[in-house]
Specification:
- The protein is an alpha/beta fold and 310 residues long.
- It is built from 14 helices and 11 strands.
- An 8-stranded parallel sheet has the order 1-9-8-6-5-4-3-2. The protein has a 3-stranded antiparallel sheet with strand order 7-11-10, with helices on one face.
- The longest helix is centred in the C-terminal third of the chain and has 18 residues, at 291-308.
- It is globular.
Length: 310
């Protein structure tokens, strides 16, 4: 299955794994890459030492290309970027900040730059700045989201970006979503939530089980009115957060209330007071599989649809 993104990254299938804080480690990244996609190690909330160790561990686990996700608002951003450049991973995905000032440094280290963008304006800006590809991510995704749906983003962005490959993310959890994105003109997809429910993912079993039990209406978006939207499963945390948000609580109070809840849910398994970040396409997230089987199921459907539409 060849597209511009498979050629750019040297991968078999046009699927990259989402960079999910506290979830995307070396084991998961290497498993996705070994299965034919491109795995990603997420550095959000992590130390420089952890980042270096996980990159080296992934290199021991796979000879295939993998990347690192960098949250540009992280307090240790300069040190994280230095380590990634020293270790020379295949590519980086960049979010939560302006990627443009960092492009030259990554390119000097021969690392491909793939920012995550939520709008036409930013897509055009990073294209002109010389990125190698981009991810357009709709609000159906888990974690930090923008204000446009995946369908609207595909409709608005894909016809306008011609110089670089474009991947689509946000609510894509199976082969049907991949096929739809490719039919719309995308060069590939980024999937996060589907890879949470894999044997290789370190997310706590209680959080995985909560995702399996969830149905289509069981996610909530906190922070939407403050331009700081995050999608996760509904629970006591989201209820209290939204009550505070809707009553006009100061942003600092909301930040303090939410700090540490992602780790609480994903690592410690507190599915009541922690945040279980996951996308909106919940009804197909109903089993835990090896990454290789997730990949094969996804691409087999995509191959079938491509054959039927010829």
């Amino acid at each position: 299955m060849k597209t511009k993104i498979t050629e750019l990254l040297g991968i078999k299938y046009p699927i990259i794994q989402g960079g999910m804080a506290w979830t995307s480690d070396a084991n998961l990244a290497a498993a996705v890459s070994n299965a034919g996609g491109a795995g990603i190690i997420a550095t959000g909330g992590r130390t420089v030492e952890w980042t270096r160790d996980e990159i080296r561990k992934a290199k021991d686990l796979t000879a295939k290309p993998f990347g690192v996700n960098i949250m540009l608002m992280a307090p240790n951003i300069a040190e994280i970027i230095d380590v990634v450049c020293e270790e020379k991973v295949a590519f980086v995905t960049l979010g939560a900040g302006n990627p443009v000032p960092h492009i030259e440094k990554f390119h000097a280290a021969e690392i491909k730059v793939i920012p995550v963008v939520p709008s036409v304006k930013l897509a055009k800006r990073v294209e002109e700045a010389g990125v190698d590809a981009m991810v357009i991510e709709g609000m159906e995704g888990g974690g930090h989201i923008g204000q446009q749906t995946t369908m609207a983003l595909m409709t608005n962005v894909l016809p306008l970006i011609k110089k670089v490959p474009v991947l689509v993310a946000g609510g894509i959890s199976d082969g049907r979503g991949i096929a739809a994105a490719l039919m719309m003109g995308a060069d590939g997809v980024q999937m996060g939530s589907r890879f949470i429910l894999t044997d290789e993912c370190p997310t706590h079993p209680k959080a995985k089980e909560a995702i399996i039990k969830a149905t289509d209406t069981d996610s909530a978006v906190t922070g939407f009115s403050r331009n700081n939207a995050v999608r996760c499963l509904k629970n006591e945390f989201t209820k209290e957060y939204l009550e505070k948000e809707c009553s006009g609580a100061p942003q600092q109070e909301l930040n303090d209330f939410a700090t540490g809840t992602n780790r609480l849910g994903a690592v410690e398994g507190d599915i009541v007071h922690g945040a279980v970040l996951v996308g909106q396409s919940l009804n197909v997230l109903n089993d835990i599989l090896p990454c290789a089987e997730v990949m094969e199921r996804s691409v087999s459907y995509t191959h079938l649809r491509a054959h039927e539409t010829r």
